[in-house]
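Provenance

Sequences were taken from public entries as deposited. Structures were produced by running a predictor on each sequence independently, with no templates supplied. The record for Class I SAM-dependent methyltransferase from Nonomuraea diastatica is shown for reference.
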Amino acid sequence: MDAHAVLDVGCGTGSMVRRARELGHRGRLVGLDPDLAALDGARRRTDVEWVDGVAADAAWDREFDLATMTGNAFQCLVSDEDLADSLAAVRRALRDGGRFVFDTRNPQMREWEEWNPSNATEVVDGTGRTFRVSHHVESVIGDVVTLTETTSTPDGTVLRVDRASLRFLDVPALGTFLNGAGFEVEAHDSGGHHGPVSGAGRSIGTIARRV
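Predicted structure for Class I SAM-dependent methyltransferase:
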């Protein structure tokens, strides 16, 4: 990572910036997230700045060379207003020519059609505990999918149910929002390959530059 100062928006537990530090990044690393529980765990690492807030709350002014949103966090920006406010804040936080790099699910893949309880998966946390995670789609309205995620023990005891709405934007729509916010799209990446995004790749990686 060549950027001296990096802002990770929607950092969660901070895995990306923690990994960057472990790999030898010597500059400034900042993680921003509204999930206090996730940040509490992240703060065990004291050589990274951890800030509570959403993207639109970012108040930095031309302090970063690179801003990132990983894990499809960009899709949590559901309304046009939230997208505009968040992109404006990210742009303001970047120095001239700074880059914003993020990933989103490819709407051409219609991945939400696979989100049903029969496709539950098992995950193992950092302590070795196994959980069962399943999804149920409540609605698909335009490009917004609303769903619930249920986390349970392997024997079926429900531990928590989370509800979320995710926005699935295609490449032209992403470009419209980014250009309107003062970014120039430098590249899109589909399935690990630079070039036109096709239905074959599950994700769309975007690199945009502040202009």
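The chain is about 20% helix and 40% strand.
The chain has two domains: 5-106+170-210, 108-167.
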